[in-house]
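Good morning N.,

You mentioned wanting to compare the apo and holo forms, so I went ahead and generated the holo version with calcium ion. This is what I fed in:
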Amino acid sequence: MKKPNFIIIYADDLGFGDLGCYGASGIPTPNLDKMAQEGQRFNNAYATAATCTPSRYSLLTGCYPWRNPRAKILQGDAPMIIGKDERTLPGTLKEAGYRSAVIGKWHIGLGDGKINWNGEIHPTPLDVGFDESYIMAATNDRVPCVYVDGRTVENLDPSDPLEVYYGGENPFPEVPTGKDNPELLRMSHSDAQHYDTIVNGVGRIGFCRGGKAAEWDDETMTDIFLERSKDFITRNRDNPFFLYYALHQPHVPRIPSPRFAGSTEKGPRGDVIAELDWCVGEVLAHLKAEGIDEDTIVVFSSDNGPVIDDGYLDQAGELCGDHKPAGPLRGGKYSLFDGGTRVPMILRAPGRVAPGENSALISHADFLASFATMAGVTIPRSETADSLDMSAQLQGLEPVGRDNLVTEGFGTKTVVRQGNWVYIPPHEGPPMMESKGIETGNLMSPQLYDLGTDIGQRANVAEKHPDIVAALDALLEEIHGE
Ligand code: NG6
Ligand code: CA
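and this is what came out, ligand included:
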């Protein structure tokens, strides 16, 4: 059998309850629903963290994020946190002759301290295993709002250099900010982080000046990333490839293309989810058109759980109605509860993988070891870090997944799940992220939940089961200490 191509389509902040195939009814997601019917639909798949950078770091390195102290939400000018010698998913697949591309949201850092936005950037994804890279540096709510194509900022006019600044007083007082020029905003901010430099009528986090010709247009971002992805697929149809298509939806600011604006009753958050669903349909149709549908394993998932208000007033909460972004789960993005990390995940490969419901416990850290096996690359166990070979489970051939996994909430606070038990050790900090209306899961006493009978983590049974608490506490310590 031919080596399979791999595509990971990774949504940004999509929740366990956001898709029709996971029980939602308010937002149309026909393409993902069909993909789920034709493939494996997972209900125990976890991102490694409840925020983006750490989660994506694990996806690409197979390593739990809290092992790397730099794997935390990065600013737009932060240095690359993957070391040049670190094993990565694309680097591993390269050993089997794959060509790899990352298209979309990066957020794992660029450069090695000071980035020259007006020259060549080193390192970029090209230095950690990717052959092609077309990315936004961080998030769509952070500057710089430009695309980095390979090593350079696309469309930069050298006579108008781009400057980027984080960390203190605004060094560019002549450039309008959301704080001082709210009359220029088309979308109001709901917190004091999202009111720095205004780009396209949206206050962003961080300050920038210049680089006007290179600025992205939020409304066309979807089409740009999609077209690039299709083009990469077409150019690599005759050789094995890995495409990491990192969608920017439904992260804030939620600005769909005009085709999707107002297309749902749930406001911009619903509209951008409908839009991301369309993107998935486009990729699947393109694979078919290129005749490589049956040779391509497509995985769809999300980097962390959902959030309603993440810095802008876009009516996401008011228009949510009875739609529950995290489904039956407690918490959401930033949370130690399952809503932070348990995410929708669908794998489709017609002709190779039979359709079905899949309850195997899987971590996104497992793609590295699993894809390596499927591609025929042998990696010494000592080099796969926290990544376990779940290739049989991913293909629905083996129902039992991992024995346990560790996830991270906000910062490096961790949680362990073993079987249906979830143990949250005592963590300092407020129980609520008030501004976002999200329960953090912080509590100074141990928490133990039985997901088998209590998927919503309502009943803390730690006092009833001191033996299980002790065993899971020891397990977590052992994994941390490895
Ligand atoms: C936070 C931002 C949030 C979002 C997040 C990263 C504030 C108050 N909030 O710091 O809006 O950008 O970072 O999201 O600044 S993530 O999905 O990339 O992790
Ligand atoms: Ca995210």
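The radius of gyration is 21 Å.

Happy to go through it together on a call whenever suits you.

Best,
F.
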